[in-house]
Known about the structure:
It comes from Acidipila rosea. By secondary structure, the protein is mainly α.
Amino acid sequence: MKFRIALLALAICCPIAYAQPSPGTMGTKAAPAEVYDHLLSNLQREIVGAADAMPADKYNFAPTQGDFKGVRTFGEQVRHLAESNYNYFKDWGAPNYVDPKSIEKLTSKDDIMKALRDSYAFAHAAMNTMTADNAFEQMGARKQTRAGIAAFSMAHSMDHYGQLVEYLRMNGIIPPASRKSGM
């Protein structure tokens, strides 16, 4: 839980850091969609890279040594991330919404990877609806904001990315983001 809170704080602070003008652009404001979409692109690169690095025959892998009873398999982790993108951004008015329940049934790596990539296309479309005027407007009964939902979605994704990395390493695979250039 502490890790998730730290990630959430980081996700909220990072857009502020990205929005800081460089010396040559003092006073220039960054558009929220541009800032958050940039963060989402970085996150997507790491998650899709990790998901793609696991061989198809290992998508059913879940740790068995230790207290891992009932944890998601690698493929279930990836499916959950795809489902989550649709759940977090469903009310933003972006096109090509997919009912997350349809993703639950996917079993092959190819189908899960397609669902993951499609979910990021949807998330990017949603992210690009964020403006300075609506980023902090309350949405729905829970009084969330686009900026808050976007930040939390990225913190949630990084939590699962950490699990994907562990599963890769348990299978002797170095995550793409950890590989040195030229390897």
